[in-house]
From TrEMBL:
Name of the protein this chain belongs to: Ubiquitin-like domain-containing protein
InterPro entries with a match to the protein in the record: Ubiquitin-like_dom, Ubiquitin-like_domsf
Positions of region (Disordered): 1-20
Gene3D superfamilies reported for this sequence: Phosphatidylinositol 3-kinase Catalytic Subunit, Chain A, domain 1
Pfam families: ubiquitin
Domain of life the protein comes from: Eukaryota
Location of the Ubiquitin-like domain: 29-79
Amino acid sequence: MDGSSEDARSTAAAASSLEGQASVGTRIFEINVKQIDGSTTPVTVRSSFNGWALKQLLAEKLGVPADRQRLICRGRAIQ
């Protein structure tokens, strides 16, 4: 990560893709995404999301391309 403001904003999301009913067996829950600048953004996601789907959701909200994001959960990179 080069520390640019785009990278700093690369960890938040929009719930717009979650409108409507969740499919059977899929749970919807909220996670808190901490950005490199220290701010935290709540994100509503489905349990069926993989790393790429989460990055796409984050890209919608922030306008930062998914391939410019670096997501880390519990010390491990999310692919």
